[in-house]
Amino acid sequence: MTAQLERANQELGSFGYSVSHDLRAPLRAINGYARMLVEDHAERLDADGHCVLGVICDSARRMGRLIDDLLAFSRLGRKELEKSAVDMAAMTRTLVEELQRLEPDRAVTVNVADLAATVGDGSMIRQVLTNLISNAWKFTRGRSDAAIEIGCAAQANETIYFVKDNGAGFDMTYADKLFGVFQRFHRAEDFEGTGVGLAIVQRIVQRHGGRVWAEAAVDRGAAFYFALPHGEDGVSV
Questions:
Q1: Smallest Cα–Cα separation from 161: which of 196, 133, 124, 135?
Q2: Which of 64, 85, 91, 164 has the fewest CB atoms within 10 Å, i.e. is most exposed?
Q3: How confident is the model at residue 181 (pLDDT cuts 50, 70, 90)?
């Protein structure tokens, strides 16, 4: 059974590489030729022509990001967990500072509680926090009083971490689809994204033996929770 699983993982890895290579080549060609038209024949193009080429380039870039996200999602099932102590508070502060540097003109109130440390794969946990905090940052765009709260609560057998915001929110009627691949609750024109980020969050948390869920209301913000179980030493594993 183990040999079959290893063979299946190898085949999946080969398939992912092939898909990535075979899809990226035509995307690079589409984007490259469109840019050549803009750079070398700009004077022959009217406003509509420039607009169409802009859409082509944007679509090619969006497909490239989608390929990257799908490959990242597929690799999660094969990557071995490399567990170590994870300073959740320091990691969270670093991620928030990175977002603030990227958009210094945005006024977002971010409150980070004294987060409990955990034990897990540091790079994977960072991806969970990155996706959830980035989403909160993104969906509060346009709010004059944008606010994000990041905290945790210790339970008997697990630590529950949360990221809350007062942004666009979503309809809880469709919450069962939230963590599926390609599931988007907002128009791409309003908020960028590929619809893979939350699926990655769920996959990582589940690989750590945890669970993830959300609460929200349309135009009243959202709260995302993920719970990591405690180990014998009293911290999450």
A1: 133
A2: 85
A3: low
